[in-house]
Amino acid sequence: TTALGTLLRCFPCERLCGGCTVPPAPPHPPRALPPAMPPSRRRLPPAARLPPRTFHSYLPHSHRTYSCVHCRAHLARHEELISKSFQGSHGRAYLFNSVVNVGCGPAEQRLLLTGLHSVADIFCQSCKTTLGWKYEQAFESSQKYKEGKFIIEMSHMVKENGWD
């Protein structure tokens, strides 16, 4: 026999009628359910086919939140907002008590509008966009309240969940 003839005999329809040299798979027992389809082959609704959002933390949907404008990773709850009257490197910024899904770069000293501070740039863990900075140390006593707090520029945030 030729190789082409062998290939043609190995099609599933040939296996059903016994024309193939490969023994057919045993039939399922009566009333048995077919084997579960692997997750990658299940049919999902169109919205579920989008790439998964793999963030380190998810904030509750019932709370007003701020998210990264570039990838929609959750950044902070509205309850963590301290002030809306801050200035970032590229425009207005908000001061937050705590944030999620951000990474920190190395601390460095910068002379800001309010004096000398030790700050570390923060970036979105998901898309790696620089969002603002974290105040590590304030050298003036009137600025000590900023230590451990986060600045996120408004141009990198979007409001989500429950804003009217």
TrEMBL record:
Belongs to the yippee family. The keyword S-adenosyl-L-methionine does not apply. The keyword rRNA processing does not apply. InterPro entries: Yippee, Yippee/Mis18/Cereblon, Yippee_fam. Keywords: Metal-binding, Zinc. One of its GO terms (molecular function) is metal ion binding. PANTHER family: PROTEIN YIPPEE-LIKE CG15309-RELATED. It holds the Pfam family Yippee-Mis18. Residues 64-161 form the Yippee domain. This is Protein yippee-like.
